[in-house]
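This section describes the prediction task in plain terms. A model, or a person checking by hand, is given the sequence of a single protein chain and must write out its three-dimensional structure as a string of tokens. No templates, partner chains or ligands are provided. The sample shown here is typical of the held-out split.
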Amino acid sequence: MAEAAPKPILVRRALLITSPQSYRLTAYLEAAAGLGVELVVASNGKHSLTREVAQGIFIDPEDPSAAVAGIAAAAADKPFSAIVATDDATVELAARIAGDLGLSFNSIESARLSRRKDLARQRLRSEGVPVPDYWCLDLDRALPPQLEDLPYPLVLKPVSLSASRGVIRVDSAEEAFSAIDTIRRITASLIDEQERLTVLAESYIPGMEVAFEGLLIGGELQRLALFDKPDPLTGPYFEETYYITPSRLPAETQTRITSIVSQACAAYGLNQGPVHAELRLNDAGMWILEVAARTIGGECSRMLDAVLDRPLEAYILAASLGTPVPAKHKPGASGVLMIPVPAAGVLRRVEGEAEAARTAGITGLRITVEPGHVLERLPEASGYLGFIYAAGDTPAQVEASLRQAHAKLRFRIDPLFLPETGMDNSPGKKNRRQ
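The expected answer:
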């Protein structure tokens, strides 16, 4: 009697919607390999040098209908079991694709709310979730009547960008006019007209800022980490630098933060996947600044390796496949410094890397900008010079290690001469004609 043919081994197949330059790509590929998951990358990186991107599915994020059709065709023979989006720019497209393929994901409406600050504020206020007072400014209408009676100080921001790009504190109507001109330049290339012509103005909330990292599983929010931001963020720009976990806030305060973020997720209609939230706290209360349906940005998730028993991306992939695992925390603390750009210009070299990397408590240092790169600063900039990681027994030790390491770095930056305008943007010479 002939032996029965062995049953084929079923490999779980997940779809990752991303940009080809995403910092998260390698982390997701490694997490998928660890879970025995086939990860298919969908991006606009048709000619990428990264094999998984080049061999993946090419989509045009600016043509959602064609992207959905292309993914559906690719899934016809080998269906996907799950879908994951890496950042704000991909969550809404992922929701559309998931709806077409019948995959479990957040709704299109909830995904849109998670990346549109103006719509999010409206929804949160209507559901009783604490947010700053806010006003939507229409750049197609005369600005003086819209600005004259607003209570300053205010924070002005685009409604759809991230990484503090275009976020500006203003203390008067005169400052607001200048800030809006800057925001108008930053958003000029946005395709969506409403996103291009709307500026969100909200009351400036004094106090400390924290970041929350969580995972929604069937509508239940699991806290993975709460980060303190020890540097004061008072403006006029809001460059993020240090993230330290676990938070040094009282346990009761941390529980309240989780509860408010959970309320915000419910108000949006989010019920699955990663959540990254930002809040302001002071003696009067706490306010939601942002709730995004994505993980923490950049390479910052690497610091969680020191305090979680598995990579952040592994938790996300496992949950998306319907096999979530509870988060287990290691003892100790960790943190990251998103290395700020000290001056605009052309980066020539970075000195002191080896010395900084040898600082006690430092677990990694990566400069992500190559020499010769033109550097911008906030509010125009959208990135950092690199990342420094640290681990230790306490949050205070971690913060001290990061500050000591950063102090050992020296950045040689040449001024950028703009021949078409004759302007030199070097420090102290901003807008000086040559």
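For orientation: The radius of gyration is 23 Å.
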